[in-house]
């Protein structure tokens, strides 16, 4: 009997030292199956893998990046045109890393609070190309997160408070 796509996804992530746990989606969320995932290392990056009810042939990698209060304060000091330039630069960098990603800024590009990143892949692709295909998608997806975070830090360097202490591990 063939393993389910869900079982393969969980197995492959765990083999790469990711932490997974079942996603408890609220009723009506339109999610057939899902897991919450955390990358190894410190700090970990959290994302989800979901199989939508209305599109059972595909899976979606999804994450949300909340603009830090420090970066939000720095953005507020800028004129709207400069904020637009900064966000355009950050999003361009992210799209260079992942042309297949769907990136949305909420509530809008001039006053960003959250940036969501989604990447879809199909069940038949996963079955045809296997673990290496899936992991390349995950790395590209996570590198998009790093591109966005590094873009904010490039324009508005805000060292995290823990930089004066040694961190046991950083995941890149």
Overview of the structural elements:
By secondary structure, the protein is α+β, with helices and mostly antiparallel strands. Helices cover 41% and strands 24% of the residues. The protein contains 4 helices and 6 strands; from the N terminus they run H-E-E-E-E-H-H-E-E-H. It has helices at 5-15, 69-76, 80-97, 123-155; strands spanning 19-22, 31-38, 46-52, 58-66, 102-106, 114-122. The protein has a 6-stranded antiparallel sheet with strand order 1-2-3-4-6-5. A hairpin with an 8-residue loop joins strand 1 and strand 2 (31-38). Helix 3 runs antiparallel to helix 4. The longest helix has 33 residues, at 123-155. The radius of gyration is 17 Å and the shape is elongated. The termini are far apart. The model is unreliable at 167-172 (pLDDT under 50).
Quick take:
With 172 residues, this protein is an alpha+beta fold.
Broad shape: elongated
Q: Which strands sit side by side, in order, in the main sheet?
A: 1-2-3-4-6-5
Q: Could you estimate the helical fraction of the residues in percent? A: 40-55%
N-to-C SSE string, H for helix and E for strand = HEEEEHHEEH
Radius of gyration: 17 Å
Unreliable parts = 167-172
The major pleated sheet works out as: 6 strands, antiparallel
- Strand-pairing-aware structural class: alpha+beta
- DSSP helix count? 4
Can you give the mean pLDDT?
91
End-to-end C-alpha gap? 36 Å
Portion in strands = 15-25%
Question: How many beta-strand runs?
Answer: 6
Descriptors for this entry?
172 residues, alpha+beta, 6 strands, 41% helix, 24% strand, elongated, disordered C terminus
């Amino acid at each position: 009997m063939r393993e389910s796509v869900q079982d393969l996804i969980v197995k492959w992530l765990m083999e790469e030292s990711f932490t997974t746990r079942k996603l408890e989606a609220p009723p009506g969320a339109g999610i057939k199956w899902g897991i919450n995932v955390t990358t190894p290392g410190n700090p970990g990056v959290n994302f989800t893998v979901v199989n939508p009810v209305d599109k059972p042939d595909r899976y979606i990698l999804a994450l949300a990046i909340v603009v830090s209060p420090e970066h939000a304060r720095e953005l507020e000091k800028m004129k709207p045109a400069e904020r637009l330039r900064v966000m355009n630069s950050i999003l361009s960098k992210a799209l260079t890393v992942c042309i297949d990603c769907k990136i949305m800024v909420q509530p809008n590009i001039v006053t960003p609070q959250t940036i969501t990143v989604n990447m879809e892949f199909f069940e038949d692709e996963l079955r045809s190309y296997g673990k290496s295909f899936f992991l390349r998608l995950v790395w590209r997806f996570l590198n998009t997160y790093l591109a966005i975070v590094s873009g904010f830090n490039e324009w508005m360097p805000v060292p995290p408070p823990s930089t004066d202490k040694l961190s046991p591990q950083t995941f890149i």
